[in-house]
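re: ur question from the group chat, yeah i did fold both. here u go
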Amino acid sequence: MNITTFVLGGTLALALAGCAAFPPNNTATMPLTPEGAPQLSQNDAISLASWALKDPATTAGNPARAARALAAEDWLAGQTILYGNYGTYSPGGELSWQQFRQQARAAIGVAPSAPSQELVNRLLAVNSALKAGQPEAAKAQLASPIFTLGPDKTLAALTNLPRLPGRDWAFSELNRNVDRSSGSSSGMFN
C-alpha cells in the first residue's frame, strides 16, 4: 500500500464515518429576497463558497461574509441538484461535501444534526443584520440552540474561521465532474 492509497483510504473512511452524524438528505430551500428571487443562485453559492472558504484570510474580520459563505456551503451540501447537474456524480463527491459540511459546522459550533434550513436561514439573517450595522440582531439569530457556542462565541468564530481542508476535496470533486460532463478541464473552483 502506497502513501496515496493510505491517505485517500483514510480520508474516505473518515468521510464515511462522519456521514453517520446527520442524515445525508438534510437539505434546505434557498430563502427568497423580498422580490421573490433566491438569495443565492446555485452558481452564486458555488462561487461564493469556493472563493470565500478557500483561505481564512478572505473572511478574517468579516463575520458577515463568513456567515453568507457558510450558508452557501451548507445549502450546497444538501442539494441533489448539485450532483444531478453533472450526471454521474461520484459517491466520493457526495462524501466530500458531507465532510466539508461537518468541518464548517464544527468551526462555528453547530450541531451536526442541526436542520440545514434553520442554519441557512439564520446565517443569511446574520449576514443581513451585520451588513445593516445591527450586531444585536445578528446575535439574536445566533442565540438559537443549534449554535452550541452561544451568540458571542459564534460571532467570534465567524470573525476568525479556521482553514477548512474539506473545501479542497469538495470543490476538486465538483471540478472533476464538471470536466467529465463538459469535456473541459478548467479547474474553475481551485
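okk and heres the other one u asked abt
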Amino acid sequence: MNAMTRSRQIRLNAFDMACVGHIQHGMWTHPRDRSGDYTSLAHWVSLARLLERGLFDGLFLADVLGVYDVYQGKPDASLRGAVQIPLLDPLALVPAMAHATTHLGFGVTCNLAYETPFLFARRMATLDHLTNGRIGWNIVTGYLDSAARAMGLDAQMEHDDRYDLADEYMQVVYALWEGGWRDDAVVRDRTRGIYTDPARVRRVVHRGKQYRVDALPLWEPSAQRTPVLYQAGASDRGRVFAARHAECMFINPSTKPNVRRLVRDLRSRAAPRPILAFLGATAVVGRTEKEARDLLEEYRRHASAEGALAHASASLGIDFGRYSMDEPIDDAPTQAIRSNVEAIARALGPGWTKRKLIDRFVLGSRQLPIVGSPVQVAGELIAWVEDCDVDGFNLARTVVPECLEAFIELVVPILQERGAYKREYAAGTHRQKLFGLGDRLPAGHPAAANRFTDTYGATPAGR
C-alpha cells in the first residue's frame, strides 16, 4: 500500500443513458440483461438505490438529440441494434431517483445549442432544489447533423463556433443562477405578508452576439445555485473551454501516455482552480481471473460489430460503410468529436483500417474492458490513478444489473481495504462531496463574478 493509495480516494460514477444500448452494443441481447426496462421508473429507482449502496459518487447520464445515421448514410443499423435509440429524456428520471436516495449525485448531459438559456437555467435550478443540491450538468454543444436537422437547421455549426456559442451561453446562465437573487432575498415573513424582498432581487440583462435576455429569474436560490459542471471536450478548443468552466472532466479511454498528457494539460490550463478528471472505463469482474475471462467470452458472443460501427461513424464523423476492410481510413478533422478521431488514430497507428477498428470491438465498442479478479480490477483502477493522475472513473455498463452488482460486491471492498475508496458518504451537496469545500463555486470561477452584490450590474426588480 503506497501513500497515494492511502490518501487519494477514487471517485466513481456509473455511466449510463436512458436507452437500451449505450456504449457496449449488443449486450441487450444477453438473456440476463435488463436494459430493455429503461421505460420503467422502477428500473431507474432500483439502479439509483444500488449505486448508493455501493457508495458511488454519481450517476452520469449521457444524451444525444439526433440519430446515428452516418454509417451507410442511414439510421438502419442504429435502429436494428438499439444504438442509443429509442432514447428518453434523462432529466425526467432524476426526481424519482433523488427521492429514493440521499447522497447519490446526478450528472445530466444537456445540449446547450438548441435551448434558450432562461428555460434551461430554470430547469436545472428546479432539479437542484428537488435533489437537495445533488445535480450536475455535462455541458455539450452537440456533434450530430441529425440533431441540427431535428431542430429545424440544415446542419450544425462549425466545431469551434459551437464553443464560441457555448462561452456566451455560460455567461447568461451564470448571471441567471448567481446574480438574480441575493442569498437573503427570501424572507418568508408571515406577519408582514412578505415572502420575497423586492430590493434583493434584480433583473438579469444580457445583450450579446447570440443571446438577448431581459429577465427576472423565477426561481429562488437553490443549494448549489450553479450545478456541478462536467465537460468532455478534449480537442484544443474543447480544453480551452473546459479549463475556463468545468469542475469535472470526462476523458475517453486511450493509452496511458495520452490520458496522462490530457490530464496534465487540463490541470495546467485550469490552475489554480481544481478540476477532477474522470476516465471512461468498463469492468468485467469475476471471483477469479478464470471466471472473469469466461464471463468476457460469454458477453462477447452478444457483441454487435454493426452497432459499434454505427456508433463510431457518428462520433468520429466517418462513414465506415464506404470503406473496405483493409482500406486506410481518412481521419482528417470532421465536425464530430475531434478528440475521438485523434484518440483512435493514436491507438491504432498510421494507416488504420476498418478491420483494425473492428478487432478493437471486444464488447461492441471502442472501449477495451478491464477484465480480472477483484484484486486485479482494483489494482488496475488504482494504477490508472497513480500513473495518469485521474481522480476517478465513469463506469460503463455491460449486462445490467449484474455488472454493477458484481463490481459493488467484489471490487469495492478491495478498494476500501487499500484505502482507495470511501466507507461512507460525506455530508452536503454534490459539490461538497466531490471537493470537500462549500456548496457554491469558488471565487476564482467565472460564475462568481455574477454574484449579487450592491455593485452587480443587473437591474433591481420592478425597474
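fwiw on the second one: Confidence is low (pLDDT under 50) at residues 1-6, 455-463. Residues 126 and 219 are 8 Å apart (CA to CA). idk if thats what u expected
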